[in-house]
Sequence to fold (645 residues):
Amino acid sequence: MSQPQEFTFQTEIKQLLHILSHSLYQNREIALRELISNASDSLNKLRHIQLSEEQYRDGAPLEITLEPDKEAKLLVIRDNGVGLTHDELVQNLGTIAHSGSKEFLRSLSAKAEETGGETPSADLSLIGQFGVGFYAAFMLADRVEVVTRSYREQSGWRWESDGSGRFSITPVEGDVPRGAQIRLHLKDDMDEFTDPHRLKFIVRKYSTFVPHPIKLAEETLNEQKPIWVEPKNQVTEEQHTGFYQWLTHHSDESPLWHLHLSSDSPIQFHSILYCPPTNFELMGFGNIEHGINLCAKRILVQDDCRDLLPEYLRFLYGVVDSADLPLNVSRETLQDHKLLPKLKRVLVKKVLDHLASLAEEQPETFKTFYQQFGPILRTGIGQDFENRERIAKLMRFHSTHSVEQTPIVTGGEEKAALPAVSLDAYLQRAVEGQKQIYYLSGPDLNALSRHPHLEAFRKRHLEVLFLDDPIDEFALTQMRQYEKKDLISIDSSEVEFPESTNPPADEVLKPKPKNFTRVLELFRGALDSKVTDVLESSRLTESACCLVNPQGTMSNQLQKVLSHTMKDYESPKRLMEVNPHAALVTRLCELSNNSDNDEFIRDCGRQLYANALILDGMIPDVEETTTRAMKFMEELARTKTAIVI
Ligand code: ADP
Fold:
């Protein structure tokens, strides 16, 4: 008799086992799903090997069998797939660092903190995605045996553990069939897992679409129907939901939308793509990393093919099945396959077109979609030159128009209404002769909607888009144009107003106050080192001044982002525009008659500049600004009287 070899589980796996064996009762169905899913993966691997290597073909059907034994309190899940060698048992079931176990634990503990301790079943259900599904066995069993023989070996091994921190591996004498048997010695309250009715129910619920027969006493429990090759109108919503749940391991969830595609030329393929209802990235699960299942004539070739969709559509799940793909491609040769980039091009175009029609036909669904996945989708503008306009069409913004329709909610935690203005809707409202699409960016919608730069645009009834996410501005800056109109930040000196919005020629222009040139001169002297120039403004109606970015300079918001990310970044100087008709400026013009007031006027110039910086979300020289404000207050206080008249 050979002696068992003893091993200790990696620390994270020990912690994981502890959580799993104490998990809530209703999570336990997940365990069966995970073990069936592993068996199915193993059968897929073997099928691949058999395609290219004749010596491993034996004609026996590839299948999964459930063998319950009520008396022995035992459930065996058996497959005749690739099996595991001694080293694979050590590596895959216990010791070699599984990055997935760490990540899964992290996501669980983050969730548990939010919910005050208990792990919600929806989160445990993600276990398969982290590559640690096997350990779910300890939800059902207090002792697990894996009896296995690798397709490359003549004899087999027994792996065994009670989940408490150690496992052992022993050689098995005698014949062991190829593949793996997961032998679950069920816990006391797990009788239902030896009940054939209950097992049937669970398999039908979670594993209908497993592409291999799942057998229980000669009966096949699952349909294994490749619904993607069926005609579109013959697939029911129920089937879609079932298939989605199987693909994503998200039980109790339906996809937000699906796209079922079939094409014969130029490439033959069938595909179903699903969009989940929520974005896990927004919930702090890190970057989504799954891919699409790639099949050749219904047989799975690769289950996480990342080459079929670009990064900015990484949230989609689904299957792509092409008869033009040889069955025996391997992961390595697949990368060089000419077909993939072609398939990818078609898929991307179809998805973006689908989203465009969703926006028209099901605006509510589109809204949810945009709220969840907009941040990922928008990064596509910088990544996918070819589809830039298509993606831009899907972007939504707040604007001067939309805040008039739905005022911004201020204070409290309440979020403003979802952005709803598309570039197309904007262009429909554009005025005659408008050559530019105007936007203003900043961190906060509320401040944006009050910005002095908007005055001239409001007066001329020109809509301005509000960009409150730097991604939006990066995207628009990269695009430069949409439908041949320049996208322009309204703090740029390159803004042009359409002629049709100029005030009528017969409208008598208010004369400029006397001495305005002198006031500008004084301001210039005071701000010499800070601005490129001080000039009269034609864009302001109320405010006294604003800062404008000279030609070709980035907008304030982009400059701010850069100054946060680059240590030595220095913002380029800006131009200060002054409104001659603002009450303060008019008064300063009067005061400038007397040169004794020069220093006061210069100080006002400096303070106006500081105020304008603050309005743009930047910080002026703190020491200087507060000292000056103090001086103003003191002077003003001196002019007040304490005598009550
Ligand atoms: P994942 O399957 O996501 O990699 P698991 O923890 O479920 O993570 O399984 C770990 C590894 O153990 C698998 O990658 C596979 O190599 C091996 N394994 C699990 N179950 C089987 C099985 N039934 N047959 C062969 N290998 C298996």
About this structure: The CA atoms of residues 537 and 577 lie 5 Å apart. The chain has a mean pLDDT of 88. The two ends are 113 Å apart (CA to CA).
